[in-house]
Amino acid sequence: MKERAFSISPDIIPEKDVWFAMGYRDSVPEPRIRDMVNEVKDLLVPKAVLKYMYGEFEAEKISPREMLVAGKRFRPEGIICSYLQGMTHALVFVATAGREYDAAVKEMNAQGDIVQDFIADAIGTVLAEYAVSAIEEDYEGKYGISLPYSPGYCDWDIREQQILFSLFPVNPCGIVLSDSSLMSPEKSVSGFYALGETLVKQPYHCEICRNPGCYKRRTA
Amino acid sequence: MDNLYEAIFKGNAPAAKVSVQEALNASRTPQEIIDSSMIPAMEAIGAEFEAGRVFVPNLLLSARAMKVSLDILKPLMVAEQSASLGTVVIGTVKGDLHDIGKNLVASMLEGRGFKVINLGNDVSKERFVEEAAANDADLVCLSALLTTTMGYMKDVVDAVHGAGLRAKVMIGGAPVTAEFAEQIGADGYSSNANDAVALAKQLLS
């Protein structure tokens, strides 16, 4: 298992990613909201300590809806399995914006400002995803690598996080998984990257997904 | 369009505070101010959101301006003049710690004139029933973000209805659908905060 904890400068987090997480998609917020985003970002991001942990395991797609990773059977369903052609291994990961970020948000929101709270929530989402993308940058293996996939998205049952977490030491990166498959800190992500010599990275096919409310959705 | 309407519509809390005081100085009653300026402004920003011309932060800025205005007016209002459209008990169900969407709905409901009792997250069915009874609630609003916790909504719906309370139950959250609401016997479902206000009004009409 490889583990890392690191801090980043607010400048590294693209404003556009935060706007997207706030629901703007391709629109640009008005100036006062852009200013608020930057203020909250400058205040909170320096206090965050991002963390990730990952391990590389043998993996194979065993049916149009199922895969085996480290001998454990997962059912990520048809959308995700359609991307797994050529998978021979998987990088299974957890990543988080960290408890320090939660504490900073709590401190900022002592006054109960719902607008700041909303912006902080979006920034936390982007930070957690940044930590996930850092795993891909860190990976120096010999295989082709897919996009990351997570339980709870693309029809994959969120309860399979319980199996995924069984591949890690207890509370990896300080992340606690509840019986209802809720991760704490809330701004945490678990999932896997598929690996394979012949594996080709494919874009997410959001158009075939049945969850139009997904905040990650890239199509109308 | 008066200054207060504009301040709330534009989500300018400091301007709203000043305008409320001006309206009071002009001998308008708190109820008049709420009915003629504040509620229409919130309805207008809600309509803009529905039309896709503004985004969630605009709703929140307006709700925030509404709240600072109400904070000035509430102490001046005697009980029988209360502007409350009804009492709402709201919370995220047991096992789920997600707050943001539920708080958004709570702010919007408060902004439109409901009395809101926000129970926070990880709330048990017993607590929902207890608070709904203690506050003679008109509505109980349930939120869940996880597919693993949305099932608990049925337990809460059954508990509220089983306790013989008059409160109606509405539900929302990312994995929740209108079909699911129907299946579990909820009285209504809304997909976003603005829609939740319209549904709350409809359920109490």
Layout of strands and helices, then pairs:
The complex is a heterodimer of chains A (220) and B (205).
Chain A: E1 2-6, H1 15-21, H2 31-44, E2 50-61, E3 67-69, E4 72-74, H3 77-81, E5 89-96, H4 99-108, H5 114-138, E6 144-149, H6 161-165, E7 176-177, E8 183-184, E9 188-196
Antiparallel strand pairs in A: 1-2, 2-3, 2-5, 3-4, 5-9, 6-9, 7-8
Helix pairs in contact in A: 1-5, 2-5, 4-5
Chain B: H1 3-9, H2 13-25, H3 30-50, H4 56-73, E1 87-92, H5 100-111, E2 115-118, H6 125-134, E3 139-143, H7 147-150, H8 152-162, E4 168-172, H9 178-184, E5 188-189, H10 193-204
Parallel strand pairs in B: 1-2, 1-3, 3-4, 4-5
Helix pairs in contact in B: 1-2, 1-3, 2-4, 3-4, 4-5, 5-10, 6-8
Would you give an account of this structure?
The complex is a heterodimer of chains A (220) and B (205). With 220 residues, chain A is an alpha+beta fold. Helix content of chain A is 30%, strand content 23%. Chain A has 6 helices and 9 strands. In chain A, the strands form 2 sheets. In chain A, strands 1, 2, 3, 4, 5, 6 and 9 form a 7-stranded antiparallel β-sheet that branches. Chain A has a two-stranded antiparallel ribbon with strand order 7-8. In chain A, strand 3 and strand 4 form a beta hairpin. In chain A, helix 4 (99-108) runs antiparallel to helix 5. Chain A is globular and about 50 Å long. Chain A starts with a strand and ends in a 24-residue tail after the last strand. With 205 residues, chain B is α/β, with parallel strands linked by helices. Chain B contains 10 helices and 5 strands, in the order H-H-H-H-E-H-E-H-E-H-H-E-H-E-H. Chain B has helices at 3-9, 13-25, 30-50, 56-73, 100-111, 125-134, 147-150, 152-162, 178-184, 193-204, and strands at residues 87-92, 115-118, 139-143, 168-172, 188-189. Chain B has a 5-stranded parallel β-sheet, with helices on both faces. In chain B, helix 5 (100-111) links the parallel strand 1 and strand 2 (115-118). Chain B is globular, with a radius of gyration of 17 Å. The chains are: A alpha+beta (220), B alpha/beta (205). At the A-B interface, helix 5 of A face helix 4, helix 5 and helix 7 of B.
